[in-house]
Design a protein that fits this description.
The complex is a heterodimer of chains A (130) and B (314). A three-stranded antiparallel sheet of chain A has the order 1-3-2, covered by helices on one side. Chain A has five helices and three strands; from the N terminus they run H-E-H-H-E-E-H-H. Chain A has 130 residues and is mainly α. In chain A, helix 1 packs across helix 3. Chain B folds into two domains: 8-222, P-loop containing nucleotide triphosphate hydrolases (Rossmann fold, 3-Layer(aba) Sandwich); 227-313, no CATH class. In chain B, the strands form three sheets. Chain B has a six-stranded mixed sheet, with helices on both faces. Chain B has a four-stranded antiparallel sheet with strand order 11-12-10-13. A three-stranded antiparallel sheet of chain B has the order 2-1-4, with helices on one face. In chain B, helix 6 links the parallel strand 6 and strand 7. The longest helix of chain B has 17 residues, at 167-183. Classes of the chains: A mainly alpha (130), B alpha/beta (314). The interface between A and B is medium-sized, with 24 and 30 residues. Chain B: This is ABC transporter ATP-binding protein.
């Protein structure tokens, strides 16, 4: 359930919290569920949940208020967005341009295509008509 | 529970156990730390129950040293009051009701939580006033699960505690285990064949086969440590060349090869470019593959034959 077998669970827990911070579900300075709550919800070992949370503490995205719990650090969202954009470049843009070069697509054509697919997200072009 | 020191609670050194003509434990070395949920996995007859019996003074090793909380388990009553062993076919006095079994457990275990036991009786819909010998197999298992959890012993062994429990009851067990463990950290040793069901609950995995320890590893480091590569046989062969292969299957021109390796992002991308598919390997699959690889059962051809041989030699 929700947890997959390809990677360590603590990494997946950390990513889930990161996603919630990025899309605003967890606002900065708001409290994060406790590790025991994570464990119960995802049905995972509490130590594993704790490892995921402490990874984000180490990265300065969460901080601990003694006796109260974990909170989202100020600036966490900006930090994550920057990191995600860098990842986006490596994971998507680089392979995209590599493949485009292979197919002889000029950067102008590529930009045009991107524009087309951008408007396509509103109303998928062709997919309806065909 | 983050970063709490976890001192060793059980140590097993060079322990062997001989029955008449077979070696149930073969030079076993193990260290168990406090505050963790261990999975003790292995086939029937692999030595799981023998190991747990030795650790709880219900059996004796032929050679080697066992220490529980630093003591020999059978020499110290104080040790026995701190450990709880729920056997697969736990026996209770004939005329006992579950309520009486709980009463007895409450006198033996200092940490017994009666309110918690009562809640679980409700959840499992257990007839607490009926005689135990009249209970169904599942209800009998529920009695064991309740005693194991409500006793809050410092070390609790569950030896396949789920026989006869339906899927709903097993989920209740897993949920109560996680919640109660989170609130009252202690050491749990869970022996189970339903590996997929318990995989996410385990912090550490011990795989035993023919009395020998095959795997003794952190569950998280096992996760993703193997991968199955699927695609055209030639390409799969090339990609997996020189790797430790756990399992190989071919079908027409396709091959599916499970390798004992964690792939880097680069290798994953490479596989993608070759048009190969990468499938995660569940803990259960990995345990099956490792056990078969160790037994030499997993010969890509004639796997069925060697399985049959194995059956025949039993």
């Amino acid at each position: 359930m929700l947890i997959d077998d390809s990677r360590p669970i603590f990494v997946q827990i950390a990513e889930r919290i990161e996603n919630d911070i990025v899309d605003g579900a967890l606002a900065e300075e708001s409290q994060v569920p406790s590790t025991n709550e994570f464990a119960a919800f995802y049905r995972i070992n509490p130590a594993t949940a704790a490892k995921g949370v402490s990874r984000l503490v180490d990265e300065g995205l969460l901080y601990k208020k003694r006796g109260i719990g974990m909170f989202v650090a100020a600036g966490a969202r900006a930090k994550l967005l920057e990191r995600r954009r860098e990842e986006f470049f490596r994971q998507y843009v680089q392979p995209l341009t590599r493949e485009a070069r292979k197919l002889g697509i000029t950067s102008e054509q590529l930009t045009q295509m991107l524009g087309r697919s951008d408007s396509g997200t509103q109303l998928p072009e062709g997919s309806v008509a065909q | 529970m983050t970063g709490t020191a976890t001192p060793e609670v059980i140590s097993v050194r060079n322990v062997s156990k001989k029955y008449k003509d077979s070696l149930a434990l073969d030079n076993v070395d193990l260290t168990l730390e406090g505050g963790k949920i261990y999975g003790l996995l292995g086939r029937n007859g692999a030595g799981k129950t023998t190991l747990m019996s030795v650790l709880t003074a219900q059996g004796f090793q032929t050679s080697g040293e066992v220490r529980v909380f630093g003591h020999r388990p059978y020499e110290s009553d104080r040790v026995l009051g701190r450990i709880c062993f729920i056997r697969e076919s736990q026996k209770y006095p004939d005329d006992f009701t579950p309520a009486q079994a709980f009463k007895a457990a409450s006198m033996f275990f200092a940490g017994w939580d009666q309110a918690f036991a009562d809640r679980m009786v409700e959840e499992f819909q257990l007839p607490a006033k009926r005689r135990i010998k009249k209970l169904s197999r599942g209800q009998l298992s529920a009695v064991g699960v309740i005693i194991g959890l409500a006793s809050r012993a410092e070390i609790t062994f569950f030896d396949e505690p789920y026989l006869g429990l339906d899927a709903v009851a097993r989920q209740i067990f897993y949920d109560r285990l996680v919640q109660d463990f989170a609130e009252h950290p202690r050491t749990i040793v869970l022996s189970s064949h339903l590996i997929d069901e318990v995989a996410n609950l385990l912090e550490h995995v011990i795989l035993i086969d023919k009395g020998r320890i095959l795997v003794d590893e952190d569950a998280e480091s096992i996760r993703g440590s193997a991968v199955t590569v699927v695609g055209p046989a030639a390409l799969v062969g090339e990609f997996t060349a020189g790797r430790s292969v756990l399992h190989r299957e071919t079908f027409a021109s396709l091959a599916s090869v499970t390798i004992d390796a964690r792939l880097s992002a680069r290798e994953r991308a490479e596989a993608g470019e070759l048009g190969l598919e990468l499938a995660p390997v569940t803990l259960q699959q990995l345990i099956v593959r490792k056990t078969m690889a160790a037994t030499g059962t997993d010969l890509s051809v004639g796997e069925r034959d060697s399985d049959a041989e194995l059956e025949a030699t039993k």
